[in-house]
Design a protein that fits this description.
about 220 residues, mainly alpha, 2 domains, 6 helices
């Protein structure tokens, strides 16, 4: 009985230590996300005080989507702009010094083909978020979550969610989110290298991708 009791006690201690080790990275990850979000809020507050605690006044030509009276279509156009920003990160073929003055036609019909772009955008982003939340808290999932946080949080001030901005699309607001995007690309390349044995082809494709983006910029 004594040996059985010691064995059970040892087993309980082992399970307890494993649970502690499993929960510690999660707590650290949540702490990092909290610090990052608080940092973003502090920056927004500082910016608010710099602007004299009042919002600037913009004209319709600066950001036409913000002047749509119908809330539904205003949200639809905002989401289409988010999708375009994501596409500029993936494939920066459309670069413009000024996206105002109606450069992007507004969506005023739910049957507009561009609504499919919005659906694809949120399907991909939602799939990433769900896969991270349902994961087994591995190092890769934590890295993906950190990458998504760095991708999304810096973009929030330009998203028209908290206040109206004076532009439609501005490549400058993608500088910080591009860090999270680059991390996602690196994680994806690492995943491909683990899944496929032909690493030479993957390395060659990555080099071509880097050179293409370098020449484009």
């Amino acid at each position: 009985k004594s040996s059985l009791y010691l064995e059970k006690n040892k087993h309980l201690k082992k399970n307890l230590s494993e649970n502690i080790l499993r929960e510690k990275p999660l707590k650290l990850l949540l702490l990092r996300q909290l610090i990052l979000c608080l940092g973003g809020v502090i920056i927004l507050i500082i910016r608010w005080y710099i602007m004299g605690r009042s919002l600037p006044t913009f004209q319709k030509v600066d950001n036409p989507a913000s002047f749509i009276q119908d809330v539904f279509y205003r949200v639809v156009n905002y989401n289409y702009i988010y999708a375009l920003n994501a596409w500029l990160l993936i494939c920066p073929v459309w670069l413009c010094c000024d996206w105002s003055m109606g450069c992007i036609p507004l969506i005023d019909n739910i049957l507009d083909k561009r609504c499919m772009v919005i659906a694809v955008f949120w399907t991909i982003l939602g799939s990433l978020l769900i896969s991270v939340l349902k994961s087994n808290r591995s190092t890769t999932s934590r890295s993906v979550l950190m990458s998504l946080t760095m991708l999304i949080v810096p973009f929030l001030p330009a998203s028209n969610l908290f206040f109206q901005v004076g532009f439609v699309i501005a490549e400058r607001v993608l500088y910080l989110p591009s860090a999270g995007f680059c991390m996602l690309i690196a994680l994806g390349c690492r995943r491909l290298c683990l899944l496929y044995s032909n690493k030479m082809l993957l390395h060659f494709s990555l080099i071509v991708l880097i050179l293409s983006f370098s020449f484009r910029s």
